[in-house]
Amino acid sequence: MFREKQRDISWTVEQLREFESKVGDVFETAAIHGPVHLSYGNEDYLIDLFQYVNSQDWVFSTWRNHYHALLHGVPPEYLMERILAGHSIGFQAPDNHFFTSAIVNGILPIAVGTALGLKWNLSGRMVWCFVGDMAAESGVFYEAVKYSARNELPIHFVVEDNGLSTNTPTQEAWGMKKPKAVSLGIHQELTEKYVSYFKYERTKYPHQGIGKWIHF
Amino acid sequence: MGKYTNELTRAMERLGEHPKVRIIGQSTLWDGHALFRTWKNVPVEKRWELPVFEDFQMGMTIGLAMQDWIPLSIYPRMDFIILAANQLTNHLANIRLVSNGKWKRHIIIRVTVGATEPLYSGLQHSQDHTETLRTLSRGEVDVVELHSWEDVFPAYEYALLRTDKKPTILVEYSNLYNGE
User: Fold this and answer.
1) From the CA of B33, how many Å to the nearest CA of chain A?
2) What pTM was estimated for this model as a whole?
3) Beta-carbon neighbour count of residue A66 at 10 Å?
């Protein structure tokens, strides 16, 4: 990693999974009037990564944001309250510098603007921007990494690649006959400092919910 | 220069005096369109040149505002801001609602309806999408039309000083740039 460890993470793999399991159980009772996107299988990487994220840093995430929020220090009670109120996919925690969007690629330009603002403010803080593999293959991602690297912005992009966008195989949709790891579409020298990448498999939860009650 | 352009220049000078305002967009540092001459008196360190990526620019505008800057985000043609409709309606128009008003969003957007006289700038450089912008903004962004030179300075000053920090889109008309 390009910086020193910033904090200890108290969350364990089992605790994170238990949180998602609780959400899934409640969702199955039809008590949540909104979609939920649950995580599973990427805990080890994220727990390790968030040791390098300062609690005053800014984190940008997507519709699948529960792990990122918890690991960044958002109180689990508050997150659960908002999930139960139906606001999982657009969850916001301004007090924790935590922003999400349910628009694919939507966070990228906002994250870059935030990083530029932090740089102008001489704040010493940085932005962490989490995207999936489909977003990482997009032109917007290319623009975001290129602009950030060339302007030396305090930002780091993290690509979480489970090979799927909803249920579409990302690489096949982009015309790759033999799916392999995300190509990122950018020059390697740009990615070393600014982009982290890891691959995991969707083994438990489907794209949304737990796969039983409703398909939205 | 005519009164309309003079007032725009005065408005830019006023905004340029504010320590948190930054003019962002294309041709803020290099002369590339008619708006350029209106910020000639704003110090260069308060202007930030961007590539042509309209939707990205709108997103960056939001991010800068979240860090307590007041971006004056410029779109030299109304036709171009249509490319930023995604960030405008999916984020800027929602940002107060999703955060209970906690995300900062003091933003000024400057957009111009392209000229038809004395030079017709063509179908892709002269459309007026003001009502479309209002629809996309859903009341979360004020869209203000500057039909007269008398409208200009008060509108910009209000957008800068407004206590509710609500985003403002100011619509100018290139046909008035060359008037008396």
Assistant:
1) 23
2) 0.94
3) 23
| Token pair recorded at residue B147 | 């039909």
From chain A, the residues in CB contact with B67 under 8 A are 113-114, 117-118, 120-121, 123
Q: Strand, helix or coil at A97?
A: coil
Phi and psi at residue B55, to the nearest 5°: -65, -40
Name which of A87, A116, A121 is nearest B63 (Cβ-Cβ): A116
CA distance B79 to B17: 30
pLDDT digit string (tens) for chain A, length 216 residues: 788 999 999 999 999 999 999 999 999 999 999 999 999 999 999 999 999 999 999 999 999 999 999 999 999 999 999 999 999 999 999 999 999 999 999 999 999 999 999 999 999 999 999 999 999 999 999 999 999 999 999 999 999 999 999 989 998 898 887 655 555 555 555 566 788 888 898 888 988 888 775 665
**Any idea what the Cα angle at residue A115 is, between residues A5 and A58, rounded to 5°?**
50
pLDDT at A208: 82
| Tokens describing residue A44 | 């080890």
List the structure tokens of B94.
């929602």
Angle between helices A139-150 and B54-66 (to 10 degrees): 60
Q: How far is A197 from chain B (nearest CA, A)?
A: 23
- At B55-93, the pLDDT tens digits run 999 999 999 999 999 999 999 999 999 999 999 999 999
**One-character DSSP codes across chain B:** --HHHHHHHHHHHHHHTSTTEEEEETTSSS--STTGGGGTTS-GGGEEE--S-HHHHHHHHHHHHHTT-EEEEEESSHHHHGGGHHHIIIIITTHHHHTTT-S----EEEEEEPP-SSS---TTSS---HHHHHHHHTTSSEEEE--SHHHHHHHHHHHHH-TT---EEEEEEGGGTT--
ipTM of model: 0.96
